[in-house]
Amino acid sequence: MEYYSLEGKAPKVGFREAALRGIAPDRGLYFPERIPAFPKRFWSEMHHRPFLEIALELMLPFTGDSLPGPQLRTILEKTLAFDTPLVWLGDKVGVLELFHGPTLAFKDVGATFMAGCLGYFSQAANTRTTVLVATSGDTGGAVARGFLGVPGVDVVILYPKGMVSDIQERQLTTLGENIRAFRVEGTFDDCQAMVKKAFLDPEMNESLTLTSANSINVARWLPQMLYYVRAFQQAGPGTPELVFAVPSGNFGNLCAGMLACKMGMPAAHFVACTNQNDTVPRYMASRTYAPNPAVATLSNAMDVADPSNFSRVLQLFQNRSEVLARYLSAYAFSDDQTLEGIRELHERFGYVADPHGAVGYLGLKRYLEASGGGRGVFLETAHAIKFRETVEACLHLELELPPGLRELMPRKKVFTSIAGYAQLKEALLAK
Ligand SMILES: N[C@@H](CCOP(=O)(O)O)C(=O)O
C-alpha cells in the first residue's frame, strides 16, 4: 500500500515512511491510495472469530511490506490487550467504552499501535526518532505512556496552558525518562501549528529525525478503526445497523470509523458531536469551512478549532460534501448542555459519563430524534475521573481514583513553559 499527500505535491510513500514522516513534505496528510473493500461475508462471519485475527486481516493491507506479519501480530496483541466493551444502556442507546487502556482514553489504542511500529522501525534502522505531539488533553498522556522507555524514541509533548485537566497534565508531565513536556501560552491549534512548522524547518530536520504522534500520522490514525469493528462484532449477528455518535476534536476518531464503513463495515450513520468549537457542524450546515479561534470548554480534549483530519473525512467522499452529508450529521453543544447530558445519563441509566461522552450522547439523542428512530452507540472516549472536578460537582458524588492514577498524584509536574516556536526550537536543538 502506498500513501499520497492530500496536498498532492509530494511523492507517494509506503507505510513505514508515512509513519516515520508524520506528514508529507508539502504539509499534506498522508492518505491510502486505495481503500481495501472486505466482502459482505467477511462481516457476516466475523461474530464468532477471534478479534485479533480480524484485526490482522484489516490492518495488513495498510502496513503492507513495512511490517513482517509476526511483528504486526505482536503489535496488535499489545494494542488489543485492553477491552473496548459495548454496553447497552437501554434498547436504543449503547455506549462504546474506550477508556479501559492505561491512560483511560481512546488514544491508548492508536498510541500503543504507533509506539510498536516506531519502536520496530527505529530498532531495525538503528536510528533515533523524535516524536512531536500536540495535545488538548488526552493524546499527550497516551503517547507519553505508550512510548515510555521505547528505545530510540524521544517524545516531546506540547500542551496549552490552563486548557487541560489536572489529571491529564499529570499524565504527560510526570513520567520523565524519554518524555519531555512543553506548556504553551496558546491553544491546541497553536501547539499543532508548531508541530507542523517543525516538520518544514530545515535546521530542525538536519539535527533531528522528526515525526508526529497525533492522528495526522497514519500509524496513530488507522488502528482507531478497530474498535468500531469490535463494536460491530459485539453487537452480534442480525443487529440492525448502528448509528455511531463520535465526540470529535481533531476528527481522527470519526474519520477512522468512516474508513471502516468504506471498507464494508455495515453502519447506519455517523454523528460528529462537538463542543462550542463547532467548525465542522457549521461547515455541514453552510458548506463553508471557517474556523473561529478555539475556546476553552469542559470537554477540553475537543477544544480544536481547525481539525486536521477533516480533510481526510472529505477525501473519503472525493471531497463531495453533498455525498458526505448522506452519511454524516454534525451537532455542537454548549457547556450547559454538556452538564445536562451528564445529569441525564446518570438519572436515566445510572451511567457516569465524562463531558466528552456526554456530548456524544447528546449528539446521538438529537440524531435519533431527528431521524425518527434507530439504534445507536455513543463513544465514551475517556474515563470520567479525568474530569473529576466537573463530574463530581455535576453529580454530587465522589469518584474513586483508579490505581494507575493514584501513583501519579504525588509526583511533581515537570514542564518547560514556552510562548512560541522559537523557544521550542531552541530547546530541541540545545545540545
Ligand atoms: N483530542 C486531542 C487533540 C489531538 O488529537 P489527535 O487525535 O490528533 O492526537 C487530545 O486529546 O490531545
Automatic annotation (TrEMBL):
It comes from the Bacteria. Its cofactor is pyridoxal 5'-phosphate. It catalyses: O-phospho-L-homoserine + H2O = L-threonine + phosphate. One of its GO terms (molecular function) is threonine synthase activity. Keywords: Amino-acid biosynthesis, Lyase, Pyridoxal phosphate, Threonine biosynthesis. It is an enzyme of class 4 (lyase). InterPro entries: Ser/Thr_deHydtase_PyrdxlP-BS (IPR000634), Thr_synth_N (IPR029144), Thr_synth_N_sf (IPR037158), Thr_synthase-like (IPR004450), Threonine_Synthase (IPR051166), TrpB-like_PALP (IPR001926), TrpB-like_PALP_sf (IPR036052). It holds the Pfam family Thr_synth_N. Pathway: Amino-acid biosynthesis; L-threonine biosynthesis; L-threonine from L-aspartate: step 5/5. Its EC number is 4.2.3.1. Signal peptide: none annotated. Residues 96-374 form the Tryptophan synthase beta chain-like PALP domain. Coiled coil: none annotated. Residues 2-79 form the Threonine synthase N-terminal domain. Belongs to the threonine synthase family. NCBIfam families: thrC. This is Threonine synthase. It comes from Robiginitalea marina. The gene is thrC.
